[in-house]
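Annotated sample (chain length 306).
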Amino acid sequence: MFFESSFLFYAEFNLRLFFTLLKNKNDIIYACDADTLLAGTIAKWFQKNKLIYDSHEYFEESPEIINKKWIQNFWFALQRFCLPSTDLRFSVSQTLCDELSHKYNHDFTLLRNVPILRQCKESQIEKENIILYQGVLNVGRGLEEMIQTIQSIDNYIFWIIGDGDLKYDLECLVDKLQLSNRVIFLGRKSPQELFEYTQKAKIGINFLTGDSKNYYYSGANKCYDYIQAHLPSIQMNFPEYVSLNNKYEIAILINDLQSTTIRSAIQRLEREDFYNKLRENCKKASLVFHWENEKQVLLVKVNNLV
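Output written by the structure step:
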């Protein structure tokens, strides 16, 4: 790639992707998120094949661009232009499916981003006082707030698994607060390694700010990763997590990212009877939310398409 960021990066990426698609005759083109949709749409016009759009994000409402109206308008216009050419449309949460269906006047089907079914070896793994975050290190994910809160919770370590634009700033904050022995950056891990680390943790976190519709309507994969590892978690009081928790009660839901709120949620999870209840609920939910089940939605839709 000649360009590493900005609009030119996406333009070059879609151009390269378009020619790659033309070289390879496909029955179906599967476009993941809006930044691959244009290339997939134009390739379909040439090849007369089927086009599936899988929107993992509410792209034009991402926190990085919510204050950049012209960029928001560009991604909105691009999807409005391309969606009539799509044959199937998926998204990762029911609330986001409903929102996108209403906004673009095309039906979206729920296809959750869930992990494969795994076998937990809980009897062989000793839980440590570890709070775990896994995922991209981006703005609006409550990482700064969790680091600040760790100062007032003496008996916990905070593991951060993943990489992203915010990593340097987070490392600087950890150094400033002299928490380098209690906030550990573990970098990227393979899915198997990630599962093993997740099983060792005591609490998982899925913190998000409410000023981004992308976050508000999200169905984060880390939520289901925690369930699969039988790990009680702290999630946001947003529609998808409310719906999930009302049915399975696998987490504590919080309304904001104030340190007092986070600390209170952690203290609730220190009650052994309550913690074990959530853990058992995660075990039950893990038999429902895994890819072997979820892929049936995809297979049925694709088989009907071809």
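Annotation: The first strand starts at residue 28 and ends at 32.
Annotation: The CA atoms of residues 235 and 253 lie 5 Å apart.
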